[in-house]
Write a structure and sequence with these properties.
about 450 residues; alpha/beta; N-utilizing Substance Protein B Homolog, Chain A; Rossmann fold; 8-stranded mixed sheet; 4-stranded antiparallel sheet; RNA binding; rRNA methyltransferase activity; 16S rRNA (cytosine(967)-C(5))-methyltransferase
Length: about 450
């Protein structure tokens, strides 16, 4: 039998010491525990909260532990390190859990994992924290668990106040956002389905036919999901397709499409009279896209493996709309994938910006004269966003277009009039950090 705490600690070791992605490692561990041991929903939710919360607050937790331990956190054995982090998170941020239970369960786990000689160490550290569960006096980097160089960058770009709002927003929990596939289900049928499943829905900001859902244990067990009536998709991602604004019956290419949310949105907007070609680099990624397509029955959507860096001469000047939502540092998604903040480096950002330009150098060629290219990322760095926006304008025959005709007035700004939108968590309600820009190819 595996407990929620043991499962969470195992996932934390996989993420912080073995390089796993938290959302994937956690999902696989929960599925296995449910199948093998019948783990209940309450324990699944507790394990999820422990993984997410510990990763989000890691640097602050380390500061608290290091203030009491002669052995620095970084030099501890991986299992003990993650056990202390996870337990410290409970003591500092989950006051509804008795401190005695946190300490006792941690000692039991240390024993179960054969760390008999360290159970006293674990108990001593946690008992001391339980007697003084105040937060340590630290700088913004540790307080918000962000690398110091990244905090400074954001402050230079957005100012201190907006940066603090954004970093705080990464801690906030948002309900699951879904979008109605308007081409296959009407709103009344969808509402009736949600009522039968006991779900509650609240409209999301900025996007029509989209809601936050609550009241489900697993979204894939709901009628609306199984029948392909809804698509799980972040609001920011929805806005990229809204900005693309494909007309009915047009041809669309989505270059780096996995997991497929934007491809599905574009296919829904253009309808069965159009065509969508969704591509990505690996079989694993294209499988995710196919699963979404088959669930909704979008037969006008084709899925292929392809390397977006390599020019496909058969597609030159063929597409009405090209969606280039390209590989990026993903800093805007920290609310879902908190470990990203500890892995990114300035060098990686430069390398990703260069990769994006390598793909963009091919992407614009697929756009028909008079057609549209949308360049987007899920990050918050000028190298990957604004600098690439100007690179496209200066190095291709594409002209930036104002986004204001496609966006609600609440999102209009000086930059949207120029052709791009930088979404920031906390500043733009319900959104990840996301960049969206739109270009039109000159007619010959």
């Amino acid at each position: 039998m595996v407990t929620a705490r043991e499962l969470a600690c195992t996932v934390l070791v996989q993420v912080m010491d073995e390089g796993a992605m938290s959302h994937i490692a956690l999902r696989e561990a929960l599925d296995q525990a449910t199948e093998t041991f019948g783990m209940e929903g309450r324990d699944r939710r507790f394990a999820t909260a422990l993984v997410q919360g510990t990763l989000e607050r890691l640097l602050l937790l380390d500061a608290k532990i290091n203030g009491l331990s002669k052995t620095p956190v970084k030099k501890m054995k991986p299992w003990i390190r993650e056990l202390l982090r996870m337990s410290t998170y409970q003591l500092l941020f989950l006051p509804e859990i008795p401190a005695s239970a946190v300490c006792n369960e941690a000692v039991k786990l240390a024993q179960k994992r054969k760390f008999h000689g360290l159970k006293g160490f674990v108990n001593g550290i946690l008992r001391n924290i339980s007697r003084d569960p105040s937060l340590p006096d630290v700088d913004d980097s540790a307080r918000y668990s962000q690398q110091e160089w990244l905090v400074h960058r954001w402050e230079e770009s957005f100012g201190r106040e907006q940066t603090e709002i954004m970093m705080q927003a990464f801690f906030e929990r948002r309900p699951l956002a879904v979008r109605r596939n308007t081409s296959i289900v009407n709103a009344d049928t969808l509402y009736a389905s949600w009522e039968r499943d006991g779900l509650t829905a609240e409209p999301v900001p900025y996007v029509p036919d989209a809601w936050y859902l609550k009241g489900f244990e697993s979204i894939d067990r709901t009628e609306a999901f199984r029948k392909g009536w809804i698509q799980v998709q972040d609001v920011s991602s929805m806005l990229a397709a809204v900005v693309a604004a494909p007309e009915k019956g047009v041809s669309i290419l989505d270059l780096c499409a996995a997991p497929g949310g934007k491809s599905m949105h574009l296919a829904d907007l253009t309808g069965s009279g159009g065509s969508v070609l969704a591509r990505d680099l690996t079989e694993n990624k294209t499988r995710m896209i196919r699963e979404n397509r088959e669930r909704a029955g979008f037969t006008w959507m084709k899925v292929e493996e392809a390397d977006a860096r390599v020019l496909d001469e058969d597609l030159i000047d063929c597409m009405d709309v090209v969606m280039a939502d390209l590989p990026c540092s993903g800093l805007g998604t920290m609310g879902h994938k908190p470990e990203i903040r500890y892995r990114i480096t300035p060098e990686a950002i430069r390398e990703l910006a260069a990769l994006q330009r390598e793909i963009l150098a091919q992407a614009w060629r697929y756009v028909k004269p008079g057609g549209v290219l949308v360049y987007s990322t899920c990050t918050i760095t000028p190298e990957e966003n604004q600098e690439n926006f100007y690179w496209i304008a200066e190095n291709t025959p594409l002209i930036p277009e104002s986004l204001d005709a496609f966006l609600p007035e609440a999102l209009h700004s000086e930059t949207t009039a120029k052709g791009y939108l930088q979404l920031l968590p906390g500043i733009h309600k319900g959104c990840d950090g996301f960049f969206i820009s739109r270009f039109r190819k000159m007619e010959r």
